[in-house]
Design goal:
- The complex is a heterodimer of chains A (250) and B (275).
- Chain A has 250 residues and is α/β, with parallel strands linked by helices.
- Chain A has a domain at 7-27 and 34-93 and 162-248: 3-Layer(aba) Sandwich (Rossmann fold), CATH 3.40.50.
- Chain A has helices at residues 47-54, 80-83, 91-94, 101-111, 117-127, 144-157, 174-191, 202-208, 226-231, 237-249; strands at residues 7-18, 21-32, 36-41, 61-67, 70-71, 84-87, 162-166, 194-198, 211-216, 219-225.
- Helices cover 34% and strands 24% of the residues of chain B.
- Chain B has 275 residues and is of the alpha/beta class.
- In chain B, the strands form two sheets. In chain B, strands 7-8-9-3-10-11 form a six-stranded mixed β-sheet, with helices on both faces. In chain B, strands 1, 2, 4, 5 and 6 form a five-stranded antiparallel β-sheet that branches.
- The mean pLDDT of chain B is 94.
- Chain B has a single domain (32-43, 76-274), classed as Rossmann fold (3-Layer(aba) Sandwich), CATH 3.40.50.
- The longest helix of chain B has 18 residues, at 184-201.
- The chains are: A alpha/beta (250), B alpha/beta (275).
- At the A-B interface, α3, α6, α7, α8 and α10 of A face α7, α8 and α9 of B.
- The structure holds adenosine-5'-triphosphate (2 copies) and magnesium ion (2 copies).
- Chain A: It catalyses: glutathione(out) + ATP + H2O = glutathione(in) + ADP + phosphate + H(+).
- Chain A: InterPro entries: AAA+_ATPase (IPR003593), ABC_transp_ATP-bind (IPR050319), ABC_transporter-like_ATP-bd (IPR003439), ABC_transporter-like_CS (IPR017871), P-loop_NTPase (IPR027417).
- Chain A: Residues 9-242 form the ABC transporter domain.
Chain lengths: 250, 275
């Protein structure tokens, strides 16, 4: 990894425990500013738990976490929740059922005193390939993939510097997925955004992320470059198996 | 025939008139695996829900034929539908964690579904639930059986929903993106389980998915939907040779692990595809 850029995300020996269950058992990685890091691995291995700790949504962790030079602790810096945005794995759960898309998108702007709301909303809806008609609908009046795009739009509208993306394209058809992946690549280029992305789709992860961490049973068992993943230069048997199965289908 | 749909139309009232979400859809399903792929928002989930009469109250539904095992779904009594839903036909919803009951453990929900159609004690039902969780590749089925939905990971929620729908041994399973949050190895096991139910117990499977390679490998037939219509139907093995320009463009948008491209092609949507 490059040493000229500062690390935007630092995760050092992160541990998370729920009751007697160790969900994350000593995970460490770093993401330089303007770069992207992908997390893959079996279901239940702790990927979302790592993200939620970084997003400041779970205070029951041990270890060291830092975002944009700010160590995460009990109290969060005032603009933390603007600079760090997360797209959740279950878009339904992250959208308020009684809020229209318009409300969900304008609220963060109102809170932060950002003007030009109407133009920004129209722009972000177009960016995520949502029809203008979606703007005044409620979440239950949208399809699964449309809800997921609203969640992405809401994360983007506050112009964060770090985006935590948990399976952001799992409900999208591949043409909309391509538009979203291109959009994320463009924003990274223009605004130096830093991404942490979880996906079970290795082709999607390798497309956006130059580095990939593989989780199994609460541990990050391997960190490798996207090139090594593509070429099959894997060291851990978990990674090898995941890659073989993906290459078989793709 | 297990499922017969013809001339299905679903629309919603909007301030600017009726919005047609599903337009003149026809399909049939026997003891086989039918895949449905297509654009996000093209009406896949609505079509699936219509079959079990689970559409939102605002929806206006019309159909020439909408039958499950010969029963006319549009005119069936609520009691008849109750006998179908969750017993003879299961629907795995796209947002599983929000379709589960938040105040009931995963194990209790599966056990309840099991007792819907089978005779057995509570103890037996609980054991059956744990066995089903193991079948859907949950590593520690006992812990997960005692967990509430908010304590489950995304992929675990998806598998709990699958276990719940398989518990009553249904004749028809409609699975809306059932493996979208699962890694390749768990996904392969779950598909094997479904395959087994289709070939050995004569179940019919309607699989809605955005995963074109998966549908191509796993299903018998595929229907492709675009803007509320079925634009193409073909044998799954021939998906790679699809003829409709929408399907062809779709195949081209997929990122590949082994053949990377710096930028993905985006689709130029042709207004002619709407008619
Ligand atoms: N609030 C909670 N209470 C108890 N256990 C939890 C809680 N949240 C997560 N877990 C457990 O922690 C483990 C890791 O969950 P996590 O959601 O991080 O998995 P994941 O890697 O994101 O999986 P998936 O790919 O299925 O989404 C799981 O075993 C889960 O049951
Ligand atoms: N309650 C509702 N009121 C108004 N419009 C609705 C309602 N429910 C769905 N729609 C619209 O109907 C269309 C079809 O929705 P459906 O959920 O069937 O799409 P889908 O093909 O399953 O898409 P996805 O792949 O994104 O899940 C969408 O444009 C959606 O916005
Ligand atoms: Mg997760
Ligand atoms: Mg859907």
């Amino acid at each position: 990894m490059s040493h000229t850029r500062r690390d935007m995300i630092i995760v050092d020996d992160l541990r998370v425990r729920f009751g007697s269950h160790d969900a994350v058992r000593g995970v460490s990685f770093r993401v330089p500013e303007g770069s992207s890091f992908g997390i893959v691995g079996e279901s239940g291995s702790g990927k979302s738990t790592v993200m939620r700790a970084l997003a400041g949504l779970n205070d029951l962790w041990d270890g060291y976490l830092e975002i944009a030079g700010m160590p995460l602790g009990r109290g969060k810096p005032p603009d933390f929740f603007r600079r760090v945005q997360m797209v959740f794995q279950d878009p339904y759960g992250s959208l308020h059922p009684r809020q229209t898309v318009d409300r969900a998108l304008s609220e963060p702007l109102l809170v932060q005193g950002i003007g030009d709301i109407d133009r920004r909303i129209r722009q972000v809806l177009a960016d995520v390939a949502l029809p203008a008609a979606a703007r005044f609908r409620y979440p239950h009046q949208l399809s699964g993939g449309q809800r997921q795009r609203v969640a992405i739009a809401r994360a983007l509208i506050s112009e964060p510097s770090v985006l935590l993306l948990d399976e952001p394209t799992s409900a999208l058809d591949v043409s909309v997925q391509a538009e979203i992946l291109n959009l994320l690549a463009d924003l990274r280029e223009e605004r130096k955004l830093t991404y942490l992305m979880v996906s079970h789709n290795l082709a999607v992860v390798a497309h956006l992320c130059p580095w990939v961490g593989v989780m199994s049973n609460g541990e990050m068992v391997e960190i490798l470059s996207a090139e090594d993943l593509r070429a099959g230069r894997t060291r851990n048997p978990q990674t090898t198996r995941l890659r073989e199965l993906s290459a078989e289908l793709g | 025939m297990l499922v017969e749909i013809s001339g299905l139309n679903i629309s919603f009232p909007t301030p600017h008139g009726m919005h047609a979400a599903v337009r003149d859809v026809s399909m049939t399903l026997g003891t086989e695996k039918l895949g449905i792929v297509g654009e996000s928002g093209s009406g896949k989930s609505l079509t699936a829900r219509a079959l079990l009469r689970l559409l939102p109250p605002a929806a206006v539904t019309r159909a020439d034929t909408l039958r499950f095992d010969g029963i006319d779904v549009l005119s069936a009594s609520e009691k008849q539908m109750g006998m179908i839903r969750g017993r003879r036909a299961g629907l795995i919803l796209q947002d599983p964690k929000y379709s589960l009951n938040p105040i009931m453990t995963a194990g209790d929900q599966i056990a309840e579904a099991w007792r819907n159609r089978r005779k057995g004690s509570r103890r037996q039902a609980k054991e059956a639930a744990i066995d089903l969780l193991a079948q859907v590749q949950i590593r520690d089925p006992r812990r997960v059986a005692d967990s509430y939905p908010h304590e489950l990971s995304g992929g675990m929620g998806q598998r709990v929903m699958i276990a719940m729908m398989l518990a009553p041994d249904p004749e028809l399973l409609i699975a809306d993106e059932p493996t979208s949050a699962l890694d390749a190895s768990v996904q392969a096991e779950i598909l094997k389980l479904m395959e087994d139910l289709v070939s050995r117990r004569n179940m019919g499977l309607m699989l809605i998915s955005h995963d074109l390679p998966l549908v191509g490998h796993f299903c018998d037939r595929v229907a492709v939907m675009y803007a509320g219509r079925v634009v193409e139907e073909l044998a799954a093995g021939e998906l790679g040779q699809a003829r409709h320009p929408y399907t062809r463009a779709l195949l081209d948008c997929m990122p590949s692990l082994t053949h990377p491209r710096p930028r993905l092609p985006v689709m130029a949507r042709d207004p002619a595809w709407l008619t």
